[in-house]
Design a protein that fits this description.
Elements (H helix, E strand, L loop, with lengths): L5 H58 L4 H12 L5 E4 L3 E4 L8 E10 L2 H9 L1 H13 L3 H5 L1 H16 L13 H13 L18 E11 L1
Antiparallel strand pairs: 1-3, 2-3, 3-4
Helix pairs in contact: 4-6
Length: 219
Amino acid sequence: MAAAPAPVADAAAAAAAPKKGKKKLIIIIAAVLLVVLAGGGAAVYMVKKKAAAEAAAADAEDSGDAPAEEHVAEHKKDEHKAPPVFVPLDPFVVNLADRESERFAQIGVTLQVEDAHFADEIKLYMPAVRNGVLMVLAHKTSKELLERSGKERLAAEIMRESVRPMGINIVAEEEDPADAEAADANADDKPKAKKKKKKKAPPEHNPVLSVNFSSFIIQ
């Protein structure tokens, strides 16, 4: 008689089993929905990101701005630019054109040129280059060379003389004040005539980029 309650227990267990099965099914369905929603959200985010990038590129093209990749490429190109090339000249010692007293100058000059090939070429013409520079210095006075403007004018003249032996003729940008005054005096004596404008020829390229003074002594 004690074994009679067993069917009741089996019935309770059988009733509990479907409930557990339903819970597992709900959990599985919820997990699947979360995965689907997460994947859909990621897909939407990628689509929006791609659309924003395309819109930014279109705006850059319309405004004339270069893409970021081009800016990076240009920056890297600048980093790999060749180092400057210098050609030092032996120091110049020359008597100046002072009339009141005997003065002389000792000047060190270093030329910065555009590349190593031209540096080798200018060395072949060095005697002629030095001659031209000495001729320029011999016509200078101590007063001229002690002023900053005089040094800047001398540097421009050295740039011109340093390439003249190679057949490169650089026209001076500024007219000599003495020549300008003489021209004005002659113009006052003669009847004024209409001045014809002369067409300026395009300036020749100067491979000498700058003139650097390594020493500058006036005595």
